[in-house]
Amino acid sequence: MGFVGVAPDEALMGLITGKRKATEVAHSVWKNIVRKGHTVIDATCGNGYDTLALLKMVADDSGRGCVYGMDIQSTALESTSFLLEGSADENERKLVKLSLVCHSKMEDVVPKGTPVRLVAFNLGYLPGGDKSIITRSPTTLMALQAASRLLDSGGLISTVVYVGHPGGRDELETVQSFASSLPMESWASCKFEMINRPTCPVLVFLLKK
Amino acid sequence: MGFVGVAPDEALMGLITGKRKATEVAHSVWKNIVRKGHTVIDATCGNGYDTLALLKMVADDSGRGCVYGMDIQSTALESTSFLLEGSADENERKLVKLSLVCHSKMEDVVPKGTPVRLVAFNLGYLPGGDKSIITRSPTTLMALQAASRLLDSGGLISTVVYVGHPGGRDELETVQSFASSLPMESWASCKFEMINRPTCPVLVFLLKK
């Protein structure tokens, strides 16, 4: 089989050369994990780009896939809905369930026992929104714990941590501390960061074995 | 064009799942940087596996490629020669120049003005050898500085840092400190590490733009 137009290691080399954005690399990683029909969670809808990308990964004619999207800001959900209106068809949009709720409460939204394949976090603030509203370490930790409970075996918690704003490094510390607490028998957790660009987002991936 | 049998992002996913060894991932990265005819340096020959891998990447019928291999231990160079005897043909072996020298002196071995495409470091001790002989931070720093001077534009310094032995974390600190000192206009430096397996080797890549 051939992978037309996709070079091997493209995402990895994009990271190393610094030519691809952290979010693009995250999307590449998700494509290796998520299949049609999977249930996934966008824990921080923001402007909706991740919700849309995830929807395209899970949606097919069978109508089985599902994207739970959440955000604490109604403007984020409005932006997400607007983006989906323009970029997804009606059948696809039916697979998205948006909730105005803190991601620490994701278990209130996702039915118990649902096998979740991926939980995506963008930690920081809403681009173009109110910069005083940022994700905060205590709720981020609760959200990561909830995500780890919901996640199915083989699934991934993906975090893009924006560290260029006040509180960003604390948030990264929270994610790292949670990641290092996971038993290596059942989890593989890794971190990718640019060393000589300290404000670049840091990627942390937590894979449930 | 198709990449038969090579999945996109295989190396990246190998890192994330923890299923591929750091050295295997490093080799995958090198293959994206090194071409036939390039001049490369194995700064820590060890048992010779990296020297051999690099040789196969640069060698072709033109006889232009070149691998400078060095190690401070004669047993390492003997192991490397032995491996090359068994796994490379005579024409390929002519492209390898082995030197019993500390890698901090690599500029004494590589002719001035040679465009070097890759400098590979395995930092730690020689597997199966005398564990009291380890790479040390002061000479490692001098070696990284020398490598950065020799490297051609578009080239890569690749380091696999073994952190599971005494002094390993100091060595990583040295590499990180050097990497963060590089100006972002002319270098992209990044680090990949497993978070919940603190003794796993850490990968640091320094790409010269």
Automatic annotation (TrEMBL), chains A, B:
Q: Which domain of life is it from?
A: Eukaryota
One GO molecular function term of this record is:
mRNA binding
Q: Which residues cross the membrane?
A: none
The record ties this protein, via InterPro entries, to: MnmM_MeTrfase, SAM-dependent_MTases_sf
Q: Which Pfam families match?
A: rRNA_methylase (PF06962)
Its recorded name reads rRNA methylase YtqB
- Source species: Asparagus officinalis (Garden asparagus)
